[in-house]
Amino acid sequence: MTPHSVFRRLRSLASIPRGNPGLLTAQFDAFRHQMPLMYLMLIANSWALVITHYRCAPAWLVVHVPIAFTGFSAWRAWQWARSNRVRPSLAVAERALARTNRLAVAMAVGFTAWALSLARYGDAYAQAHVAFYMAITVIGVIFSLMHLRPAAITVAIIVNGAFFVFFLLSENIVFRAIAVNTALVSAAMLVFLLNHYRDFTRMVDARAENERLANLDSLTGLPNRRSFFHELDATCAAAVASQSALAVGIIDLDGFKPVNDIHGHAIGDKVLEQIGERLALLISPRLRLARLGGDEFGLLVSEFRCSDDLLALGERVCRVLREPVVAGDVAVQISGSIGFAMYPDHCSTAVQLYEFADYALYAGKRNRRGSVVIFSAAHDAAIRRASLIEQALQMADLERELSVVFQPLIYIATGRVFGFEALARWSHPVLGNVAPDHFIPVAERIGVISALTRVLLRKALATASRWPHPVRLAFNLSTLDLASRETMSELLGLIRDSGFDPSRLDFEITETALAREIELVQEAAARLRALGCGVSLDDFGVGYSSRRICIRCRSRRSRSTAASCAGWTRSAPATRS
User: Domain spanning 225-375 has what CATH number?
Assistant: First the structure.
């Protein structure tokens, strides 16, 4: 081993781990709980020594020095006890440990000088008490300092070194034996301390690695959802304290689900990996990014001036996402929609920031996919309106408040009315007439849509039962209706009990429902067809196709020829019931 390597080794033993913040923090947390007890032990042991030397030693040694020592020790114990009540910053922990290292030298020298000064006074028993005091106290101090290796080694070398030399040179063979025994015990304790510190370091590093992996998305290498929300809480708290701007953005990939469905999840994972790599290039001190799960990513943006900066950033992200992705032998083209919300413009809490950004995202996906949407006053008004509607729906008398109106269905070729589509209407005592496109989505979200469907279908069938035989009834079903076997059984029971001919009843389902719940939709459609009902797709072009599918004959037809199968079309765009 070269002198340089020896010097480096000694230097590492005598320094605190500034290059390892996790270890430094763990050291401080373990260390600060032990320090008040160490100082109290020093005070108690020192005054025990004063009692046995009070009558034989000078006053400055048994009164003045112990009082000063007690005052300093009590003050330091109080400081450490107070530090246990708060979570200090890394800089505070580093300064505290560095200060303890320096104080360890001064206190070890002072402690040793005072104790050895008392050894000159009193009889053999009093001198033996000094030896016992130094030996037992230094053992307690070393154990208390075991998480701060430099301080523990410093105290052991100074105190035990002086103790060994002083008592080894004594003419009393008992004191010489005590010196040798204490030196051996101290050496064993130092070995134990170094081994413990090594194990402690490994444990802290392992915990840090586990924490890192727990906050990392294994597929993309980006921070994960857990990490994002932890960072969001901390960043939002800092923004509130400093009254600085903060924005949360949520990215949702458009067209990613068909990639998984068509090419498989292996290709989908490769696409996500490449998207993650692209987005990682955008990370900066003012922009942090995480994968929230699936094809959704989160952004935290600070140090921006206005909403135009966010729009420019969002457009940059969208351009990156629109670039073709080559995964294996497959080239896919996807895009991304982004929703932003800002503090303090839109909200005051981390939870609201995320929820409002999410609302802006899906408002954009409904109206203009692949674009950037910033939460606005209109969105806030819509949320408030939805909240009022939600509360009203929970307490609504559906039988009394819901009604059905009918829109004529007309043959294109002849202009003859051959049926009617049932449309939902809701008249609330306080809110008044609420549009279906306002209350239907809320009813689906809070899980009461099936109750609405049952009431509306029963009323529609009751009216349609009085129509002449050729006239047909069209009725829209929700995705949640189709996805529930129990609900479908109840609806089939309503049809049977109504007396209305099922062959004159056509159910419309949305194309997006077919894409999301295709197996359950097919099962529900089969049960309706078995009863004699017609089933067709509504909302042409909203999902993956701009052509109508008739589930009765499994054919795909353009809008202009759709009537040739079911024999009808609308007189005007209809609103979902």
Answer: 3.30.70.270
